[in-house]
Amino acid sequence: MPENVDFSPAALDRDAVTYIAGHRGLVGSALWRHFEDQGFTNLVGRTSSELDLKDRAAVFEFFRETQPRVVVLAAAKVGGILANSTYPVDFLSENLQIQVNVLDAALEQQVPRVLFLGSSCIYPKFADQPIREDSLLTGLLEPTNDAYAISKIAGILQIQAVRRQYGLPWISAMPTNLYGPGDNFSPTGSHVLPALIRRYDEALASGAESVTNWGTGSPRREFLHVDDMASACLHLLEHFDGPQQVNVGTGEDQTIKEIAELVASAVGYTGRIEWDTTKPDGTPRKLLDVTTLRDSGWSPAVTLDRGIETTVAWYRENAGHVRG
């Protein structure tokens, strides 16, 4: 079957069954909020206790019962440098199981529109900056999260394979570093920005004279508020079609040191900021080329300083039951 027969992106049916896999996570919860705000009336989600996406038979039965017409695959096992480098088997195996089960079940039901969400860590460690979509598979990965990256690359290739073999207009999006309400604030399992928020907030509460962060502070990172990510996902579903993954980000980056200073300011911490250079920095720079997304008519709305301020406020309001 030729790829994408008679298909052109258009506004999604707001009454169609729309399944958001991972709807309680950072990205999934933002997707749920945004889709609701945009008038979707038939959103479907299941918690991991209600549906284990690693259980292939259960996933297929769920798809047969609900028959979704739109699927956004935001469910994944995620973590920071420490978690990824300590448990590579878990990150590879669990993510592969989730992806293959959901995408195979969606294929059985011939779901017309699927969006697979990956991560910018799919790109080579020393890719030219900013990183273009065609940099995929052109070099070696960052060793501290290569297992997770390989699982996400497999998801992209499965989307492309479905397009080639079955002609379904499925797409992939690769977000940059995300943050916002619902993030994981664990001291050992979180990504850098929520880890910094928790670290500085606890230092402020305890009256600590200094805070020590990992690495040198020199790596550059791009951050996108999760509400912007959700907006971009719906935009792509309604305005984009193509086999290549689409980078989703702001097109701007800062050093980790600059991010730490922004977090300290938002928290109100005025003590010393120190750096443990015996700890790994990870990839030196990871800035996405977002030309494809911008050309499709989308741009972010949440500035970094405002996003950090609101995330700090959310963290404090939900301190008793945040992840971590």
Please give a structural write-up.
This protein has 324 residues and is α/β, with parallel strands linked by helices. It contains ten helices and 13 strands. The protein has helices spanning 26-37, 56-66, 81-86, 88-108, 146-166, 192-206, 226-239, 256-267, 291-295, 304-317; strands at 18-21, 43-44, 70-73, 113-117, 171-175, 177-179, 210-214, 220-221, 223-225, 246-248, 254-255, 272-276, 285-286. It has a six-stranded parallel beta sheet, with helices on both faces.
List the helices and strands and how they pair.
Blueprint: E1 18-21, H1 26-37, E2 43-44, H2 56-66, E3 70-73, H3 81-86, H4 88-108, E4 113-117, H5 146-166, E5 171-175, E6 177-179, H6 192-206, E7 210-214, E8 220-221, E9 223-225, H7 226-239, E10 246-248, E11 254-255, H8 256-267, E12 272-276, E13 285-286, H9 291-295, H10 304-317
Helix pairs in contact: 1-7, 2-4, 4-5, 6-8, 8-10
Shape: globular
Enter the CATH topology name of one domain: Rossmann fold
Portion of residues within helices: 40-55%
Just name the CATH architecture of one domain: 3-Layer(aba) Sandwich
Structural class comes to alpha/beta
The tally of helices reads 10
What is the CATH level 1 assignment of one domain? Alpha Beta
Q: From the alpha-carbon coordinates, what is the Rg to the nearest angstrom?
A: 19 Å
Q: Assign the CATH superfamily of one domain.
A: NAD(P)-binding Rossmann-like Domain
**Separation of the first and last Cα atoms:** 47 Å
SSE topology string: EHEHEHHEHEEHEEEHEEHEEHH
- Mean residue pLDDT: 94
Main sheet makeup: 6 strands, parallel
Low-confidence regions: none
Spatial arrangement of strands, main beta sheet: 2-1-3-4-5-10
Strand percentage: 5-15%
- Say how many strands there are: 13
